[in-house]
Design goal:
This protein is α+β, with helices and mostly antiparallel strands and 94 residues long. It is 24% helix and 19% strand. It is built from two helices and four strands; from the N terminus they run αββββα.
């Protein structure tokens, strides 16, 4: 397998998580997420999901709160985050 093919396969596997919709309380990967209920941008760094780290955030409500992952990089530029959100037809509020 060539280096290009290996890089494309790895990139495809990583990008397959983009667009993944999960409940807010089930975010287990760092990245950039868009809130369905408000259109806000969530930047979740590795420290934000590491066990035993604080502050740990928990949102409780009657209905589940969903987010869509748009990037593995929690610190992507806002303009790029808006563009990625548009690719998934997500309303933004940032």
């Amino acid at each position: 397998m060539s280096t290009t093919t290996t890089q494309q396969t790895t990139q495809s596997q990583t990008e397959s998580h983009w667009g993944m919709v999960v409940p807010f309380d089930q975010i287990h990967e760092p990245g950039c997420y868009i809130c369905h209920w408000s259109g806000h941008l969530l930047r979740v760094p590795q420290d934000g999901i590491a066990p035993g780290r604080s502050p740990l955030m928990n949102m409780i409500g009657h209905d589940p709160l969903y987010v869509t992952k748009v990037s593995d990089n929690p610190y992507i530029p806002v303009t790029k985050a808006r563009w990625l959100a548009a690719n998934f037809d997500l309303a933004v509020n940032f």
